[in-house]
What does this fold into?
Amino acid sequence: MSKRPAIILVPVDGSDGANESAAYAAGLAEALNVPLRLLFAFPRDPVDMFGVPTEAPQRDELEYFSPDAFARLRDRSARQAFDAARHAIGQSQNSVEETILAGGPAEAIVEHAGQTTDPMIVIGSRGLSGFKEMLLGSVSQRVLHRAGCPVTVVR
It folds into this structure.
């Protein structure tokens, strides 16, 4: 990287790893005097999140298939992740933005970075996905290998 980033992007999901990366990124953003943007990725729609309903879905399974209920779930989940990251960051002298992305986390993060001028991504090495991550690879690994900008993975 021959020039400093114009913005630092930090994917958050409420996990300890995401919160640690947010705190690290905030210090870096202050040192570089650039804004910080917290990113929260959420599935595009209920089918992406839950799959196609079974032949006889339970009432609670259908609740979030309503567009309004799905939007409330997305907004509530994002608020929790953003609040946890802001708590980890503490007081920041720099601008801290919040953006909700639609789609799979790695793909949405890489796409957003590709549409941003001179970004740097700071991401935690482990998030909330657990067992699925062991089978498919971590979000941080996929971002690291696919992003066209500098990526820092925080352990």
Remarks:
- The mean pLDDT is 89.
- The CA atoms of residues 88 and 110 lie 24 Å apart.
- Strands lie at 7-11, 36-42, 96-102, 119-124, 151-154.
